[in-house]
Design goal:
This protein is α+β, with helices and mostly antiparallel strands. It folds into four domains: 57 residues, Arc Repressor Mutant, subunit A (Orthogonal Bundle); 122 residues, HprK N-terminal domain-like (Udp-n-acetylmuramoylalanyl-d-glutamate--2,6- Diaminopimelate Ligase, Chain: A, domain 1, 3-Layer(aba) Sandwich), CATH 3.40.1390.20; 118 residues, Roll (CBS-domain), CATH 3.10.580.10; 116 residues, Thiol Ester Dehydrase, Chain A, CATH 3.10.129. Helix content is 36%, strand content 26%. α1 packs across α3. The longest helix has 20 residues.
Length: 438
Amino acid sequence: MPTKHEQILEHIETLEIGSKISVRQIAKALSVSEGTAYRAIKDAENQGTVSTIQRVGTIRIEKKRKDNIEKLTFAEVVNVVEGQVLGGKQGLHKTLNKFVIGAMKLEAMMRYVDPDSLLIVGNRTKAHALALKAGAAVLITGGFDTNESVTKLADELELPVISTSYDTFTVATMINRAIYDQLIKKEIVLVSDITTPVSNTDYLTKKDSVATWYELNNTTGHSRYPVVDHSMRIVGVVTSKDIIGIDHHVSIEKVMTKNPITVKGTTSVANAAHMMIWEGIELLPVIDSQQILQGIISRQDVLKALQMIQKQPQVGETFDDLITSHIHELDDEDDESYVCEVTPQMTSYLGTLSYGVMTTLVSEVGSKALRKQKKGDLVVENITLYFLKPVQMESKLVIQPKILELSRRYGKVDVEIYHGGQVVGKALMMAQLIDRNL
């Protein structure tokens, strides 16, 4: 039987898109405490099925799929620009397809305004009304208001009119940044993307006997199974090692490994790979926030996903990508060397190379050195910077990695960073090597 928390989440998902949700309403409808309702609503917000806006409340929104994650809802725009909703609150769940900056004459501006777009404009009341009639939402910059007829029209058409204290340029930059961040999220492969769902997962209950393990093993050929209780909560994992020499009538609960390592659907595949290699695990149960089994991932699933990530083109650049794009290999017959110019983006408020960027440089160059010696994927386990001098912007750095140890599973690299022939940084990097053939 599902818990009250699960019942609330299921109830929220049945609500109509755009409907308003309150803690008191949920508590009354499902006969639960307001504390339980509040926690479930927050969980739903984390899952992307509701959005909370100041002075408006919590509304039901459509959960995004990977293929449309780069689109923002008007509710998300309100939060991005720290805005206030003047009218059309019923349309906050809708998704915007593009935004138009109203910095031209009215007639010319309206040529670019389409349904489901967002017009970013100042205190031009006529433009507000025309945009709404064209099926677009309105974002008023500079902290300006609009007149009552516009807010009435917004309510009738269910198209939001939002006001923000920021100027037009800042608002456009903030929305662009939010869309760009969504693109990066879209590229990150999560555990939920590769999970074998529970409907296709073989599992045991803690009341099953060892004999049941043998039956499953004969049917599926697998040797590792998650163990659940009567509520489908994960309570353990059982493998062939656990049942060797054990009587077939003994219950699984007595031989299983309790408190197993688990992951959630929101965990990145890279993080899951690190856990599996570090702990020597072949299978990970995937759970939700209530410890309910959602499915499993295997080491083979993770390795395939890592290989797929490397083959796909990247759309959004992370800060690491921006830094590593400045690293170039030098043609040096004696030593493996790389050169990097320190740009203003790589500096701290003092104008010197930041500690975080130094770590990224060490990680990237050390990883390049290891990949030259051993093909495959790797996870950086530890970086120790034990010598550091200030480096000014526009300095040209020469980075030299030297492999100290290399085994089937681990690599250790010493990295030295030079400027003007002098050592300005020194680090030791440890990495786990992931063999694709495992």
